[in-house]
Amino acid sequence: MTTHVQLAEVPAPLVALGVAVLAIALLGIWLMAIYNALVSWRVRVQNGFAQIDVQLRRRHDLVPNLVAAVKGAMAHERETLEGVTKARAAAVSAQAAAAAIPGDAAATATLAAAEAGLQSALSRLMIVMERYPDLKANSSALQLQEELVSTENRIAFARQAYNDAVMTYNTRLAVFPDLLVARLFSFLPAGLFEAEDHARAVPQVDFASAPPPRAG
């Protein structure tokens, strides 16, 4: 006698449930992968800003020392020196606000504007210093100026690395399907740190061709 064994069919509702669970699992993995990638790029933006922050703090620390080193020889340049001091105070305030929320577009734009103002004030100071050849014997002032130039170069390098990270991050927020995850988890675009063309470098003082200071 031949026995026929018939396999029980899987109930349709159970099959549907299995398919649904698998689909949800795949969707979860997809969401997690995109979410983690966005978080990774956001961290890169924050780390990039931290590098800028380090160099800005260095510049802010150097400025009062430079002012103190030259103010004795530049007694008639009170307005210029006060302009540098005020610009530094504004930059320090903007830096503190931006550091609290690194990458924030509004705070970064405010910081960039404040740093451009400080850079412009420093440029005016350097130009005025050329009228005082006696400062060529002031080793402290010359050393501080060199350190400022070096720091500006470091800021420019850190700014480029930060902006590159911001561009990649913002692009991912704008393209499909990443934008869906970005909107779901409230990822916000980061702000570029853009320096104005006239405030990109501190000029070197050339005492050789410096005219005499104006009479007081």
List keywords for this structure.
5 helices; 216 residues; mainly alpha
Question: Could you describe the 3D structure shown?
Answer:
By secondary structure, the chain is mainly α. The chain has a single domain, classed as de novo design (two linked rop proteins), CATH 1.20.1440.20. 69% of the residues lie in helices and 0% in strands. The chain is built from 5 helices and no strands. Helix 1 runs antiparallel to helix 2 (78-100), helix 1 (12-70) packs antiparallel against helix 4 (139-174) and helix 2 packs antiparallel against helix 3.
Brief synopsis:
This protein is mostly helical. It has helices at residues 12-70, 78-100, 105-129, 139-174, 178-184.
Low-confidence stretches: 207-216
**Nearest-integer average pLDDT:** 86
Number of helices: 5
CATH fold call: de novo design (two linked rop proteins)
Rg from Cα? 29 Å
The CATH superfamily is LemA-like domain
CATH class: Mainly Alpha
| Domains, number | 1
Shape: rod-shaped
Strand content: under 5%
Major sheet summary line: none
Alpha carbon gap, first and last residue = 126 Å
Could you estimate the helical fraction of the residues in percent? 55-70%
Order of helices and strands: HHHHH
Q: Which structural class do you get from the secondary structure elements?
A: mainly alpha
CATH architecture: Up-down Bundle
Q: Based on DSSP secondary structure assignment, what is the total number of beta strands? A: 0
